[in-house]
Specification:
Length: 455
């Protein structure tokens, strides 16, 4: 690993050693956690299916209510047009009735006038009938003139009577017409009143249907929201289940199993002491319990899930990290990597797995290839315990730790943090001396247990 990243990783490892929550997590084996998560996932999937049924049902109910609302809206519009049409006709009938009433009034005046004229004519005829022959002869020059005058009065009387009868007939017709217009107006007014009531009822029913639709819409949105939350949780569980089969959570928890794994890795790397490997990985990741506290949504212990790998990892590491996670089928946005946050400031990190390899170191410096060549399993996985222990042993061996000479081991441990076996001023400032002393102290303790057969 590069010197820069090793320096920042040291601070991360310090926090790992004092996190008691990891010890609690270690009490549950990956198999137990996976079984529990699979059970929860099955329950979530059943709930999601039920929500899908409810959503489909609610959507159908929404469409039915909307259809009713549209039908009522069209009915209300139709009634509104009919009411407006009826009111216009009523107004027109009112005008016709006024005209007819005026005509009746005029006709009545004509009848009265005709009666007066007829009365005058009848009076004259009566007076003429009462005249004696002497009066007729005295008043008229000739007898024929008298009879001509009398005949003219009779004709005028007949014509006046005929006109009077015609006027009376016209009045009767107008009165009949007015009666029919009144009846039509009243009937149409009743129809408009009924239509107005129907419109009001339709509007009230439409409001009720809109209220129900809005309630269904709110219920529909709530179902969607709850379903999305369940789907989010299900996705987290599936990611976690995937991680349980890949990251370093399968690190053995007993000393015996850890020693056997470290012995295999040390022998495969050319003879690196198992105690040295165990001391190193205990400092790096608390023996695989803490493989990173950032970019870790879905992990049982995740202090900074909101900090993505891009925020804690140099952009020079991104391509390698994406390639590694893609080959392993991992979600790059939820696979844990190391980080260090102090005073609200995020410092660089990004190391992977129990042995805390940086992506470029793992992929581009050949450690993935070396592990694959030994195990025969492709792709090698920095979060898998066997691959991580073997890669750490190979790195130590590359700095002469396989000689099992203490000074060479100290130099290899120093290089593991600082990229150089020499305790330079920069390395020392980054905590190099403290780091290698702690690793060697842990290694010595492991060696005591090994020598005593206390594993």
């Amino acid at each position: 690993m590069s010197k820069f990243f090793k320096i920042t990783l040291l601070l991360v490892l310090l926090s790992a050693l004092v996190l008691p929550n990891f010890l609690g997590f270690a009490q549950m084996t990956p198999e137990q956690e996976r079984a529990q998560l699979e059970k929860e996932l099955k329950e979530l999937e059943e709930k999601i299916r039920q929500y899908e049924i409810d959503i489909t049902k609610t959507e159908a109910e929404k469409q039915t209510l909307q259809y009713r609302i549209n039908t009522l809206r069209n009915r209300i519009s139709q009634l509104d047009l009919e009411i407006r049409r009826g009111n216009i006709i009523i107004q027109d009938l009112g005008l016709q009735i006024q005209d007819t009433e005026g005509s009746i009034e005029k006709t009545s005046l004509k009848i009265e006038d005709s009666r007066e004229k007829l009365a005058g004519i009848l009076k004259v005829i009566y007076e003429e009938d009462q005249k004696s022959l002497i009066e007729i002869l005295l008043s008229e020059r000739t007898l024929s003139g008298f009879f001509d005058n009398l005949m003219a009065l009779e004709v005028l009387n007949s014509e006046s009577q005929e006109l009077l009868e015609n006027i009376k007939g016209l009045k009767s017709t107008l009165e009949s017409q007015k009666e029919k217009l009144d009846e039509g107006k009243d009937s149409l007014a009743r129809t408009v009143k009924v239509q107005t009531l129907q419109k009001q009822q339709s509007e009230e029913f439409k409001k009720e249907q809109e209220k129900l639709r809005n309630m269904k819409e709110a219920q529909y949105q709530q179902y969607l929201k709850e379903k999305q939350e369940l789907e989010k949780r299900a996705a987290e569980i599936m990611t976690r289940i995937t991680q349980l089969t890949l990251p370093g959570l399968a690190v053995p928890q007993t000393r015996k199993e850890l020693y056997e794994l470290a012995s295999w890795a040390g022998n495969s790397a050319g003879g690196v002491r198992p105690a040295l490997i165990l001391g190193l990985i205990e400092v790096e990741s608390a023996l695989g319990i803490n493989v990173g506290q950032c970019n870790c949504a879905g992990q049982p212990v995740c202090r900074y899930p909101e900090l993505s790998y891009k925020q804690v990892m140099s952009n020079k590491q991104w391509d390698a990290f994406l390639k590694i996670t893609q080959e392993l089928g991992l979600n790059p946005n939820t696979t844990p990597v190391s980080c260090y946050v102090s005073g609200g400031q995020v410092q660089m990190g990004g190391a992977m797995g129990p042995a805390q390899f940086m992506p470029n170191t793992w992929l581009n410096l050949g450690y993935q290839q070396k592990v694959e060549n030994i195990t025969g399993i492709k792709p090698a996985n920095p979060w898998r315990a066997r691959d991580a222990f073997l890669a750490a042993a190979l790195y130590l061996a590359n700095w002469n730790a396989s000689t099992q000479n203490r000074q060479s081991e100290i130099g290899a441990v120093t290089a593991y943090l600082c990229g150089t076996s020499q305790m330079t001023a920069t390395c020392n400032q980054a905590g190099g001396e403290w780091y290698r002393n702690l690793v060697m102290q842990k290694a010595d303790q492991w060696q005591i247990w090994i020598n005593q057969g206390a594993l």
